[in-house]
Specification:
This protein has about 200 residues and is mainly alpha-helical. The protein has a single domain, classed as Ferritin, core subunit, four-helix bundle (Ferritin, Up-down Bundle), CATH 1.20.1260. It is about 70% helix and about 0% strand. The chain has seven helices and no strands. Helix 2 packs antiparallel against helix 3 and helix 5 crosses helix 7. The structure holds fe (ii) ion (FE2) (2 copies). The site of one fe (ii) ion has 6 residues, from helix 2, helix 3 and helix 6.
Length: about 200
Amino acid sequence: MGAWFLAAPTPQAWVDAAAGNWRSLMSDHANCEKKAASTALALMFAYPEDATLSFALARLAREELRHFEQVSRLMEKLDVPFERQAPSRYAAGLRRHAASAEPRRKLDLMLIGALIEARSCERFELLAPRLPPQVGEFYADLARAEARHHELYIEHAKANAGEVDWEQRLRQLAEVEAELATSPDTVLRFHSGVVPGAR
Ligand SMILES: [Fe+2]
Ligand SMILES: [Fe+2]
């Protein structure tokens, strides 16, 4: 379950809490799709000289926006309200660890992208069988998409690693990611850790 490079699986307590709160989690999920599109666009602006990457990211941004449209439509259909929610600590907590100087920064951002997509893939898979069929089937589809996305980011990490041992760097960042995704957290979100007492 999940990509080979995740350093720890999602705790059962998160899955139980998320399955029990899937309606409210859907608002955060919609945000995550927007965020994924916006991250892809930001990377296109950051690395315009890398045409191969730009094409891949343009496609990715469109796909993530389509996911946003799909989840939003499903929310309307199921009468799930759109709530304004503060994001979890996860993405910012990970990006804090990206190198600030190039070319290391580009490699780190590709690896972080891969980790986020891989965690999404794992969590959609874990949640799919626990949700009402309409939502579960949608989440199973999304898990397959996220699996392609983490492969895309890994591919571009490899292409940009140069002399750097990218697998070793991936292991370091995966440790950070696993800590954020599994340790006690304050709010239940799609990428949060475990909120003590949440059910
Ligand atoms: Fe997506
Ligand atoms: Fe994605």
